[in-house]
Amino acid sequence: MERLVSQRLLVQDRRRLGDGEEATVVEEAHEALLRQWPLLSGWLDEDADALKTIHAAKRAAAEWIKNGHNPAWLAHRGERRRGVEELLQRAELDRLMGDEGRAYVRACRKQDDIDAAEAARLEREAREKEQQALETEKRRAEVEARRAKEQAEAARRISRRTAIGAAVAVVLMVVAGWMVWEANQQEQVADSAREEALEKTKEAERSLANNLWALGISAEEKNDPVTAAHFFARATQKYSDETATKTGRLKLQAIQRLHNTIALGSTMAHDGAVRGACFPPMNPGF
Known about the structure:
Keywords: Coiled coil, Membrane, Transmembrane, Transmembrane helix
Organism: Candidatus Kentrum sp. TUN
Strand content: under 5%
Order of helices and strands: HEEHHHHHHHH
Strand order of the largest sheet: 1-2
Domain Novel STAND NTPase: 2-71
Largest sheet: 2 strands, antiparallel
Protein name: Novel STAND NTPase 1 domain-containing protein
Transmembrane segments: 163-181
Helix content: over 70%
Number of helices: 9
Structural class: mainly alpha
């Protein structure tokens, strides 16, 4: 528009309106332009609407300022305020709006934000009240259900009074039978636990004996009969089955016969590390 005015195709002027305020008026320089240039007519119509919107906002801003910036005088709210903000993206309309007009639009936006926050708060409170009402209704229903259950139970007790003796006898029989069954179950569980613990202990002893036996084999392979006899003796003590014990004793006897130097009894009684041994004179051929 400013270019068209600078090219003298449009004429811009300030005129006093009916309410005493001045407004910027833009008209065609020659009426023939409207007949020969329909697009210009469309632009003028669009700008006329924009100018009307801006001037309306300025008048509202003046009223707002005159009334001490009272929020009640913020007339441009919601979509109406957003329409003005879109027009203010145009530099010439922003200049036309002026500082007071822009302050007015900002106040409208701030009030919209306040109203939106208040609406959100009211909605949240409404949801909370609704939730409280639902919880209250739920508690009331639970109380009524409990009361109905108690009344039904009382009615059943009254109906059972005529046969209370037989019912008690039956219940006692059932309870006694259940107690016997429960005792048997617990005894079976305890027996199973004891057997499982014993089996685990035996398994641990067997694993330890196997490890000691393997250490004895390793010492024997290293030509260390004292250490080998020590491990074989400890392994023999740990084995619980008779066959393994006999095998261990036979192994110890074989080592004793082979080397004729190990006191089997003292070796088996010693659980610590072997730090030395006393041997009789050895056969030179050994």
